[in-house]
Design goal:
rod-shaped, alpha+beta, three-stranded antiparallel β-sheet, Ybab, Chain: A, about 100 residues
Length: about 100
């Protein structure tokens, strides 16, 4: 490989690293939302996988059936986290050009 090509490749790698750092900061502000129980539970999660909001409609709270509420919460949170992963992968693929680099994000 010629030195000029190596220099260009290093510049591209450095630009990609800078773009990825910027994108990771932006993803902290972007959110996704999931619902469960026909909208009875709503969870909002950031691209950094921070839970930003949980809303529970009062009519879902049944002291006689706490297990159902727990199941709805788990389903909703897991769906929100899955959507956050998809959002991160989509945004990062814009930078990496679809290259699958293990451990990158």
């Amino acid at each position: 490989m010629k030195m000029g090509n190596m220099g260009n490749m290093m510049k591209q790698v450095q630009k990609m690293q800078a773009d990825m750092a910027r994108m990771q900061e932006e993803l902290k502000e972007k959110t996704v939302e999931a619902t469960a129980g026909g909208g009875a539970i709503r969870v909002v999660v950031s691209g950094a996988k921070d839970i930003k909001e949980i809303k529970i409609k009062p009519e879902v709270i049944d002291p006689e059936d706490v297990e159902m509420l727990e199941d709805l919460m788990l389903a909703c949170i897991n769906e929100a986290l899955r959507k956050a992963d998809e959002m991160v992968a989509t945004e990062m693929s814009k930078i990496t050009g679809g290259m699958n680099i293990p451990g990158l994000f």
